[in-house]
C-alpha cells in the first residue's frame, strides 16, 4: 500500500492568497461597478527592460539555427551569467566568489524551498515571525515540525517575533538553533537590519555551528547607507551563510524565472559524528540531480541586466516603485496610520487602527476603499494587527488608492 | 550544530557523464587531431521549429509592454497550454483529463525527481534495471534506500532486471512494492511494452494499492501499433498511474525547459491508518509551494507545437532522428552486433561483442573509431555488457560514425 507523506496533512487547507481571492470575488459579485485596486501581491507591473527584450530576441534567433542552438546547458547556469553576477553584484562589495559558488536557478521560491533538503530532519529551525510562508511550509513537508497549534505556530519551530515593540529587530534565540532563515530587506515588513545587527547573527551562527539562509531578494531596493546588500559584507559570513538573490524584483523577471543562490565552499554541515562536509558539494549534487538548468533565452536576458544600459534601466524601474512606496508611506502617515518599511523595500507594513484584526482591516479596506492588500496575520501570528501594501502597482493606481484611503476610509 | 542529510553520503562520488568527459578529454589530449563524434548524451541537435521561434518572438514582444506584460503566472501552467495538451495529446487517445489534472513544469527530470516527496519514506520502491539514474538518486537522497552494495545495487530497492534474456520485458516483482518507476519507450534500452504487457503492471498496481510513475518522455518516437503512447490507454490506469511528458525530445526543448505531469484525481495514496488521499491535491500543494511556474515565453513556445504547422515541423524532427536510429541499428547489425531499441525510440542499446565490459567497450570505441557512447553499466548493474548510442546527432555525423564502426572497429 502506497503511503503518503503525512507531514502534508499538517498544512492548513486554505491558503492566504486563495482566501484573498475568494473575498475579492465575492465583493465584486456584490459590487460589479467597483474599481478594485490591488496592492496585495508582490508581483511587478512594469514590462521587462528594453535591453532584456533585445537580448532575448537575439537568443531566440540563436535557437533557430543548428550552429547556434543551445540544448542542455550546465545545471548550475552558464558561465557568461555567473561571471557577471560575481563581477557586478559581489566584487564591488569586496566579496570574491568562485564561479562554482554561484548556482543559477528558476527562482528564489524554489531555492529557499528546496535548500532545506540537504539538512537532516532532526535539526532545530528558527525563523522570524512574520515570515515568507515558503520557509515554513517546506519545513513542515520535510517533517521538521509538529502540528500547527491554536496560536498559529507549529511545534518544534523557533519563532522570532518582529513587531513595532522591538522595532522589527529580531532577538537572538534563547535555545540553540541549527538553521535560521533571515530575509532583509524583509518580506513582509519592509524593514532592514544594519550591518551591526546582522553581525550579531553571523557571530551567533559561527559560535553555534548554525547555518543562516539569507534571502536578499529585495537588496536592489536599499537606499540608505549601513544597510548590508549582502550578508557576506559581514566578517565571517562565508563560514555560515547561504545567500538567495533573484532577478524577479530588480529586473521584472517574475514571469521570466531566473534567480541564483550563493553557497561558499567554506560553509559546513556536520554528520552525527561531527565530520564536516561542504554544503556547496551537497547543494551541487541536489541541484544537478533534480534540476536541469534555466532556459538559455532567459539566462541571456538576465545577462543583459548587467550591461551599462541594463543597470540604468533596472535602476529606473526600482526608482519608479520606490516613488510608489513613498506615496503609500507618506499618504498613510498623513491620515495618522503607523507605517513601517517602504524606505529600503517595496513593502509597506502598517499597524491597523485600534488594533483591528488583520482580516477585519482587509474587509474594511476592500469595502470602504475598494483596495486589496494582504492581512499581516497571513505571514504568521506576529503579523496579527498588521497589514501589507506593496509598491509594485502602477503609479496612477497607487496614488488613486492612497487618495481613496485618505477620503473614504473611516479611520 | 547543523546536521546534513547523511543519505547524500550514500551516493557515489563520481558520476557517469563526468567519468565519460574525463576519458574523452584524456583521449583528445593524446590524439589532438582525432575527430571525435559524440553519440552519447541524450541531447537534441536540431534547432527549435520555426513555429516555436515565431511564438517566442511574439511573447518576448508582449513582455516589452505594460499592457501585455506577464508577471507571475499560475504555478501549474497557463490554461492556454494545458487545454492544448488535453485536447491534442490525450483526447485523440480517448483519454479525458481535467485542466487541474495537468501540471506544467520546467522538466521531467525535476518532476520525476521531485514526485517521490509526497510519499512516505518507508515505502518499498521498485524500478527497472537499467534505469534513468534520477529515479534512484532522488530516492537515495530521501532516505528510502540502504547503502550501495558491491553489486551496484542499493539495499531496500527492488530492481527489476531487463536484458536480452527476458527480451527487456520486466517481470512483476515477487515481493509487494508500493511505488514503481516505468519508462517506456525506455531510456536507456529503447525498448517498449505492448498494451498487453503494460496492462499486467496496471493490474498489479490496482490489486496492491501501488502507484506507477510512468515516464513517457519518448512517446513521440513510437512508430509501431499496439505500443501505448500513454499509460491511460490501459483500463484502470487512472486509479494508479502518474504520467510524465516533456517537450524536450519531441520539440527540441532541452535548452528551453518545458514539460508536464498528469496526476488524475482518482490516484490515491494512503495514511498509516488506511485513509485515502488524492495525490493530485498533494502534488498541487508541493508544486505551488516549491515552484513558481514556467516562463511565459517558454509556455507560448510550447503552445505553438500544437498548431498544424507545429505538428508537421516536430514530426519532421522526429523523422530525422528516427532515420539516424535506423542508420545506427542497421549499420551495427551489418557488422554482426546484437542491437535492441531504435525502432520506437531514439536510443540504440547494443550488446557488447564477446560480453566485453561496458567501460572496456567505451574505451575500444573511443580509441579505434573515435566515437563516444554511454556504457550501459552506468544505468545500473543489468546494463553491464551493454552500450547506449543515441540518434540525436546530425545525420552526416551519425552516418560517418557507423562507417567508422564498420571499417575501423575490430569486432
Question: How would you explain this protein's 3D organization?
Answer:
- Two copies of one chain form a homodimer.
- With 411 residues, the first copy, chain A, is of the alpha/beta class.
- Chain A has twelve helices and 15 strands.
- Chain A has a seven-stranded mixed sheet with strand order 2-8-7-6-5-3-4, with helices on both faces. Chain A has a four-stranded antiparallel sheet with strand order 11-12-15-14. In chain A, strands 1-13 form a two-stranded parallel sheet.
- The termini of chain A are far apart.
- Chains A and B meet through helix 2, helix 4, helix 5, strand 9 and helix 8 of A and helix 2, helix 4, helix 5, strand 9 and helix 8 of B.
Amino acid at each position: 500500500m502506497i503511503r503518503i507523506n503525512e507531514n502534508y496533512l499538517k498544512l492548513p487547507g486554505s491558503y492566504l492568497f486563495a482566501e484573498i481571492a475568494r473575498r475579492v470575488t465575492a465583493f465584486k459579485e456584490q459590487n460589479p461597478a467597483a474599481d478594485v485596486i490591488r496592492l496585495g501581491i508582490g508581483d511587478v507591473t512594469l514590462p521587462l527592460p528594453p535591453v532584456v527584450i533585445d537580448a532575448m530576441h537575439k537568443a531566440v534567433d540563436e535557437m533557430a539555427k543548428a550552429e547556434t542552438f543551445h540544448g542542455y546547458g550546465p545545471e548550475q547556469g552558464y558561465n557568461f551569467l555567473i561571471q557577471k553576477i560575481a563581477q557586478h553584484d559581489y566584487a564591488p562589495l569586496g566579496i570574491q566568489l568562485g564561479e562554482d559558488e554561484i548556482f543559477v536557478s528558476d527562482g528564489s521560491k524554489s531555492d529557499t524551498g528546496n535548500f532545506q533538503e540537504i539538512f537532516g530532519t532532526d535539526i532545530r529551525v528558527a525563523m522570524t515571525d512574520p515570515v515568507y510562508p515558503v520557509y515554513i511550509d517546506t519545513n513542515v513537508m520535510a517533517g521538521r515540525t509538529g502540528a500547527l497549534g491554536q496560536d498559529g505556530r507549529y511545534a518544534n519551530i523557533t519563532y522570532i517575533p518582529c513587531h513595532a515593540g522591538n522595532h522589527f529587530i529580531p532577538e537572538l534565540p534563547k535555545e540553540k538553533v541549527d538553521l535560521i532563515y533571515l530575509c532583509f530587506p524583509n518580506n513582509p515588513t519592509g524593514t532592514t537590519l544594519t550591518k551591526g545587527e546582522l553581525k550579531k547573527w553571523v557571530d551567533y551562527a559561527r559560535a553555534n555551528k548554525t547555518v543562516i539562509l539569507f534571502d536578499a531578494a529585495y537588496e536592489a531596493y536599499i537606499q540608505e547607507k549601513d544597510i548590508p546588500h549582502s550578508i557576506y559584507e559581514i566578517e565571517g559570513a562565508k563560514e555560515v551563510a547561504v545567500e538567495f538573490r533573484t532577478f524577479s524584483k530588480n529586473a521584472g523577471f517574475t514571469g521570466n524565472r531566473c534567480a541564483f543562490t550563493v553557497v561558499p565552499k567554506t560553509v559546513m554541515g556536520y554528520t552525527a559524528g561531527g565530520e564536516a562536509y561542504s554544503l556547496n558539494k551537497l547543494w551541487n549534487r541536489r541541484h544537478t540531480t533534480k534540476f536541469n538548468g534555466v532556459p538559455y533565452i532567459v539566462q541571456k536576458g538576465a545577462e543583459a541586466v548587467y550591461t551599462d544600459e541594463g543597470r540604468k534601466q533596472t535602476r529606473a524601474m526600482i526608482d519608479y516603485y520606490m516613488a510608489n512606496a513613498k506615496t503609500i508611506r507618506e499618504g498613510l502617515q498623513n491620515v495618522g496610520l503607523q507605517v513601517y518599511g517602504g524606505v529600503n523595500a517595496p513593502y509597506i507594513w502598517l499597524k491597523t487602527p485600534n488594533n483591528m484584526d488583520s482580516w477585519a482591516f482587509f474587509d474594511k479596506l476592500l469595502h470602504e476603499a475598494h483596495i486589496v492588500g494582504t492581512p499581516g496575520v497571513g505571514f504568521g501570528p506576529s503579523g496579527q494587527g498588521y497589514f501589507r501594501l506593496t509598491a509594485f502597482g502602477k503609479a496612477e493606481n497607487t496614488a488613486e488608492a492612497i487618495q481613496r484611503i485618505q477620503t473614504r476610509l473611516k479611520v
